[in-house]
Amino acid sequence: MPRKKKGYGIRTVDEPSEPAAPAEEIIRLKPHDGRKSDDASRPDEEVSARLELPPNQGGSLRTHEPGIADLVESDAVSVAEREDGWGNPDASRRSIAWGWIALAVLLPAGAVIWSLTKVQESHQRVDGMLQEVRTTQLTEEEENAKAAQLVTQIESSLRGFHAAKNVTEALPFVRHPERVQPLMEDWHTRHPWTMPKILRMRQFAPQTMGSRADFWLATLEMDDGESRHLIVDAADPRRPRIDWESLVCYQPMEWERFAEDRPVGKALDFRVHVEADHLFSHEFADASVWSCFRMTTRGPGPAVFGYAKTDSDVGRAILELLAANEGRRSSMILRLEIPENLKSPGGVIIHQLVNPSWMFLDPPDPGS
Asked: pLDDT tens digits for 42-73?
């Protein structure tokens, strides 16, 4: 049920008061440290009962005491610090992080500058590559133009040579004309001058011989039904020259006649194919002293066996050339001689390795 509200009124001090209500018993706590309480000065009529607390014997009066780590790490802030600046309008504003603003501005700017730098570098690389390509193209075009012009000059020399009617007319188109002229005249006393006509120039291929890379191999189809392979020296691109000696495989005498007649006491230079062999007989029976080589030449013809002492300069040079060619047949110019009183029916002495191929890169020494 609802409680009745107590009424309030005004009364005078002199008005006799109503009988006082019994005093309420007050219980006060008395400190245990021996200090006097303020209650000592109070009238005895005030009855007080004190609750005695036992002195702390080292125990804790709290159910949980904070450790030292909690106290050290506590983020306590003094009241003075919390109240400092109250009512100050500037204190209520948040400080502006200018470093972050600057970073936010500089990062995009740096990215833009980096991108522009990379783009510029890319453009420079592309420009360099394009320039290199243009240079390569120009170089290739120049080389192609030179090669085309050289082929035209080679064709002109080939046509001029095959149009010649004698040695004199052919000399301007051959290599080493001063040395070769007597050889051409000797050859054509044994072989009538017949020069087939060119039907078609089928192929031109650059060749490297020795230390030189200015030779070309020309393959021609002739009107006699045969194909001709000519070595052209293009050291002077304005006047390419034909190697006549390798074209006809020049020999000082016919190979068949040399093998059959065996001229004694004559040292002659022959273009021969050479292979190692093992035919040891008569004067050349001792295989520990002699090396045997089987020799043939272009086209059909007999084989002739040449001998050189294994420990001689010519014997070692021939063996080295065969070894460099993996033991296969090799083409050389050898100086051969049949000495007097030689009993071997097919043997000849190899006096000198004149040239390691059928073509002289440079004119040989006349005294060699």
From this structure: 444 444 455 455 555 545 455 545 544 444 44
- Calpha distance 339→8 (Å, rounded): 170
Q: Does 358 score more than 80 pLDDT?
A: yes
| List of residues 6+ apart from 224 with CB closer than 8 A | 196
Residue 106 vs residues 116, 121, 216, 238, 360: alpha-carbon distances, Å: 15, 22, 68, 68, 76
- Cβ-proximal residues to 298 (8 Å cutoff; 6+ apart), any chain: 249, 271
User: What is the bridge-based pairing of β-strands 241-242 and 227-233?
Assistant: antiparallel
- Residue 29 confidence (pLDDT) above 90: no
Both tokens of residue 52? 């005695």
What pLDDT is attached to residue 211? 84
Sheet holding 241-242, edge to edge: 198-209, 212-222, 227-233, 241-242
Asked whether the CA dihedral 280, 285, 287, 290 is positive or negative, the reply is negative
CB 150 within 8 A of CB 219: no
Q: Tell me if 343 sits within 8 A of 283, measured CB to CB.
A: yes
Q: What is the pLDDT of residue 346?
A: 86
- Check whether 137 has a pLDDT greater than 60: yes
Q: What is the pTM of this model?
A: 0.61
Q: What is the pLDDT of residues 198-235, one digit of tens each?
A: 999 988 899 998 888 899 999 999 998 889 999 999 99
